[in-house]
What we know:
Helices cover 42% and strands 9% of the residues. It is built from 16 helices and 8 strands. The chain has helices spanning 72-80, 93-103, 111-114, 117-137, 140-144, 149-157, 165-174, 177-181, 188-198, 209-216, 221-240, 249-257, 265-271, 283-318, 339-345, 409-414; strands at 44-47, 53-58, 83-86, 202-205, 324-329, 348-351, 362-365, 386-389. Helix 2 packs parallel to helix 10 (209-216) and helix 14 (283-318) crosses helix 15. It is globular, with a radius of gyration of 22 Å.
Amino acid sequence: MSPWSWFLLPTLCLLPTGADPRRGAPASANCELKPQQTELNSFLWTIKRDPPSYFFGTIHVPYTRVWDFIPDNSKEAFQQSSIVYFELDLTDPYTISALTSCQMLPQGENLQDVLPRDIYCRLKRHLEYVKLMMPSWMTPDQRGKGLYADYLFNAIAGNWERKRPIWVMLMVNSLTEVDIKSRGVPVLDLYLAQEAERLRKQTGAVEKVEEQCHPLNGLNFSQVIFALNQTLLQQESLRAGSLQIPYTTEDLIKHYNCGDLSSVIFSHDSSQVPNFINATLPPQERVTAQEIDSYFRQELIYKRNERMGKRVKALLEEFPDKGFFFAFGAGHFMGNNTVLDVLRREGYEREAPNSVLGAPLLVGLRSGSGRWGRPSSGSCVGGPLAVSASRVPARKGRPGWRGGAEVSEEAEAATPTAKAAA
């Protein structure tokens, strides 16, 4: 994640198309939210060494929607860690400039020059509709903070005719009433980055913008046109009231607040691309949709997990005396080929699950494999290292977190289509 990443994430890939909108959708979380934080499941895995390090699973929604349900052990782990790492560097201005450059068409080209005329006209009409509706979508709280519709529309879509079609598709997915109402509040990842900076913690990233951005530009032209057309059809159906979405940002938030460590929704939140596969497509278009899905699953989930896992391992080996807090999207720790699976293949063993928190696995380092925490004698510091969902002993009182966070104009303006890259 990065300062621009909070802008798009809540709505990307939460609106799959299909004649049977409930087909394949996860069951709604039916938990009764616990009033005591000590009773909640934690999206926290502990790397047992001295000092300990942690993995924390985030979701890309306004932090105010989930903050009260994040157990104190996760907040305490953040407080105790001296180094905080994210998917992308949230404090480097280069992140924003690199993303902006990655989104743009080659010099001298405009979207009108590259899109089929009918799609371009439909796109223009839809954006005119959004601009017309946006003032009614804004909340009194947003207006009270000086966030107005014209400014917000220009920040998100002001330069749309110069963007590559794939990024315009993602931008259109973000221009919904639900998403607009959430603007002005940092997503959980950005809030943690701001807190890390405020507390003068060292921060870093395991990925570069180019590594997330370039795969999105890797689709061929026919695939991109198909994706943009499907997105416009989807938005047009939503406007007409003829599309029921299978799961929403609200479902994502509820699963997270309930501590659902097995929800499939989190993998969608981490891949950040819409699902175009549905039973109503003609055979050839269904093949195209499956190709796109397979491409993004490989490029934006599996390859990223592999890269992230190996870089985490290298960091921990290089700095055995530092306590790290790695905050990645929760979907990177769930399902197949996760970050934890990568670490296991790099020398970790699967052990018994943690029955208290329902964590899917514990990961332990084999004695003598790798350099994690190994002193010159060859023995492991504090016994075998392990990654597990666990509780950090909490100090009395709440950790010193501030109650809010501001989003800079630079982050607002640069964010329009960036959530797909996180």
